[in-house]
Design goal:
Blueprint lengths: L1 E3 L27 H8 L4 H17 L3 H22 L8 H21 L3 E3 H37 L7 H17 L1
Antiparallel strand pairs: 1-2
Length: about 180
């Protein structure tokens, strides 16, 4: 199934007063792109939430108008991600930065193709899955850092004994997993 994407050139001219038109979506106080630009892609939880919100909006788009808004907002989000990745202060590892820049380029090109008429539902789903996978990866990396820090704390609390790395890691992993379940 393909969804017709209205572009500025194909949209019908506005003849009705703006007061009678109902908004498709209410704009959030801070856009997804603004959040990424503010956090500098360093706040894992906020960045993941933004990516998941964008994914949800893409998946829930059931009219051409909603598809337009979802694609436009997702495009702005990924342009912001790409801009942040070019910043020297961005804490993301160089290899991950390169991969994310490539993904950003994919999102931009896929979205630009959609402006030429229609976008297939499977492409919307692909863009949403991409956002979900990046969010999951961010959270997984955060979880591993938390486990590593807790394992180190356990090692220090126990007097820095040798040969108990795996035991400390498993204990830390259980504690952190318990936090994520709550």
């Amino acid at each position: 199934m393909a969804t017709k994407r209205k572009t500025a050139a194909s949209a019908a001219p506005a003849t009705a007063p703006a007061a009678t038109a109902a908004p498709v979506f209410e704009a959030p106080a801070e856009s997804w792109a603004d959040t990424i630009l503010r956090t500098n892609f360093a706040s894992v939880e906020q960045d993941s939430i933004v990516l998941l919100q964008a994914a949800s909006t893409l998946l829930e788009s059931d009219t051409p108008e909603k598809v337009n808004v979802a694609l436009d907002q997702n495009l702005k989000l990924w342009i912001a991600i790409k801009a942040v990745l070019l910043n020297d202060n961005c804490p993301v590892e160089p290899e991950v930065k390169a991969n994310l820049r490539n993904l950003a380029q994919f999102v931009v090109s896929t979205t630009m193709l959609a402006t030429q008429g229609t976008i297939e539902t499977r492409k919307l789903v692909s863009l949403a899955r991409l956002n979900m996978n990046i969010a999951e990866g961010l959270l997984s990396g955060q979880r591993n850092r938390m486990i590593q820090e807790r394992a180190y704390q356990i090692w220090e609390e126990d007097g820095r004994p040798e040969g108990r790395e795996q035991e400390n890691w498993l204990r830390a992993e259980a504690e952190i997993s318990g936090l994520f379940k709550v």
